[in-house]
Amino acid sequence: MHFRCGHAKANQWQEAAQACLMQLGQVTDSDSLGFLYVTDLLADYLTEILNYVKQHTQVPHWVGTVGIGICSQDQEYFDEPAIAMMVGQFSDHTFQVFTEITEEFKEFARTHQSWCDSKRPMFAVVHGDPRNDQISNLIFQLSEQLGEGFLVGGLTSSRHQNLQIADEVIESELSGVLFSSAVEVATCLTQGCSAIGPRHQITESSHNIIIRIDDRPALDVFNEDIGQEFAENVNKIAGYIFAALPLRGSDTGDYMVRNLIGIDPEHKLLAIGDVVTPGMSIMFTCRDTQTAYKDLLNMLNRLKIRLHGKTPKGGIYYSCLGRGKNLFGKGSKEIKTIQRLLGDFPLVGFFANGEIYHQRLYGYTGVLTLFL
Q: Are residues 246 and 327 in the same domain?
């Protein structure tokens, strides 16, 4: 495998696309798959951009989506018209682009099942629609459809059009590309929040409303964990304090961060951005820049060990919209840290409205995948 990438910003999409193509250089017949990400300020022109790129590269297959922020190499672009693209050399039989996932997976099975049966794909890059309240279930079902396949990706982040690319511009629940086991990858996740209290158990709940924790009023337990300063001033909680649902059976203490969306002081209830049931574990976390950066370094060092001194051939990075400049400040610190620790290699991605890792939908995380 060989990869090359390009990225640029410009007021006119044609200028940005041309600059990206210049950076790609001479594209060969062996370049068979491209990844394309554009900021949502260019979403209205996504079809034109994709057609232009296809015409000038002759790369037949493309996947991607729209993000309020995108990234490539050592540069992050937020709230400005920008394009990032990467092309790679894959044998035709090692990947297959898919689209139009539905809850029954009938169309997916009809179109892709024979390929899946012969190639036994265990890895997929996927993009999802954040407007679908069943998206977490679809992610899990797709993984199960692939025989517990490993998924990485993110949900589109856009202020108007939630568009994806799967050989053409679409609006789909899930789309992306399946890879056979012949494509060697290494992937890892970094958390953006740190625990501020012990693990608890939900003992009474209704849908996404938590009534009792550890057989006590939910708000009492919450206030003890976050401390008096936050308990007395709930306005400070927004964007800083979150709920976390630990993953059962995880040997790394992994958890899924969920937003707090409501507090009822009179009835001492909490509402979070996910459905919960009695018996589930819960913790409370805070978004902390220093802890998040330390965890990012730990993730990169774990991947570096797996590289055995080699530089990755290419990579894709999906980070939360709440990270990037919103967590680490200006100057593209997050993406530059990846290049500094792992080397200068082609890399593209975007800042998502939710990150996909293995079988689950995460928040406030970064998911890095390296092609080896």
A: no
266, two tokens: 């009179």
Largest CA distance in the chain: 66
Distance between CA atoms of 342 and 331, rounded to whole angstroms?
19
| Token pair 């517990």 in the structure block, residue | 148
Distance CA 345, CA 187 (A): 15
Task: Report the C-alpha dihedral over residues 134, 137, 142, 147, rounded to 10 degrees.
Answer: -170
Q: How many domains does the chain have?
A: 2
- Helices 13-24 and 46-57: crossing angle in degrees, nearest 10, is 30
CB 172 within 8 A of CB 164: yes
**Strand-by-strand arrangement of the 123-128 sheet:** 95-98, 174-179, 123-128, 150-155, 355-358, 360-362
Task: Give residue-wise pLDDT tens across range 64-85.
Answer: 999 999 999 999 999 999 999 9
Burial of 288: CB neighbours in 10 Å, binned 0-12, 13-18, 19+: middle
Domain co-membership, 38 together with 131: yes
Domain that holds residue 360: 3-190+292-371
What pLDDT, in 10s, does the model give residues 181-240? 999 999 999 998 888 989 999 999 999 999 999 999 999 999 999 988 888 887 788 888
